[in-house]
Amino acid sequence: MRLFVFLAFLSVLVTxxxxxxxxxxxxxxxxxxxxxxxxKGTTFYSWLDVSPTATLAQINKAYRKKSMQLHPDKNPGxxxxxxxxxxxxxxxxxxxxxxxxxxxxxxxxxxxxKWRGSGYYYARFRPGLGTVLVFxxxxxxxxxxxxxxxxxxxxxxxxxxxxxxxxxxxWGPKMEPLQGKRKVKVNLGGGPRQGExxxxxxxxxxxxxxxxxxxxxxxxxxxxxxxxxSSATPAxxxxxxxxxxLISSIRKFSYSKEKLPKEADLAQSAPTVxxxxxxxxxxxxxxxxxxxxxxGHVAAVxxxxxxxxAVRKR
Length: 314
Fold this sequence. Notes:
The structure is a single chain. This protein has helices spanning about 1-20, 20-40, 45-50, 55-70, 80-95, 100-110, 120-125, 130-170, 240-270, 300-314, and strands at about 180-185, 195, 200, 205-210, 215-220, 225. By secondary structure, the chain is α+β, with helices and mostly antiparallel strands. The strands form two sheets. A four-stranded antiparallel β-sheet has the order 1-4-5-6, with helices on one face. Strand 5 and strand 6 (about 225) form a beta hairpin. The longest helix has about 45 residues, at about 130-170. The radius of gyration is 44 Å and the shape is elongated. Keywords: Membrane, Signal, Transmembrane, Transmembrane helix.
């Protein structure tokens, strides 16, 4: 019933919003600008100093008088005088026109609507990319939080129902607590249903243990897990996508900052490996009569041997 009323109200609101014309939007803008410039509650009639029932001749006379007062030539250097003078001409044009005055009188008597349609506000207060992204982030995060809340209430009802069914199966219809542990089976599948072959298929059965007021879930390994309302996960802002993304980015950034100093320390503490062609490695020129270095290259040993043979022949 509430959903029906809400949808009906929404349809009426959409109908009213779609009924606003371009001329109506012009009147909305003028009303807002006039109250901002001349003061809250200023109307077209009060600004011209005429009554709402004034005739066309009276409006023309009031307009000429007001235009002489606000003419820019008579108010040199006055801030905003050009805007006020131009606004006066537009207002006078609306009141001189039969249809325009009729539309303004409607809003004058009933009040200017607070909600004027999304197109009206978008055209006048066109948001930037940053504003749109912030709005979408807040909107999607809010919807996600709402879904979390609904899921939490649903899971909470399921937990309470499972606890009640387990106690009912263990204690009987009187629901009087009994001493000791009692193993029961609770149907979590929504009750039995009829299969395609005509046989009755039971819902999902879960093994539980009831001990006084506490209810436990019995898993396949024989372990007991307490079942209470804390088993349902409550809604949390920290579980929305944007907050989780923000936390994850901060953790990655912190991890990267900690990792860089560690890598630098490891690089400094690593042992220096001798290059094969360095003098310390034993591959340099060996003087006559010296024994080849044990860690020298094989080629250096052979070269030393050839030099000894050459000396003996001489």
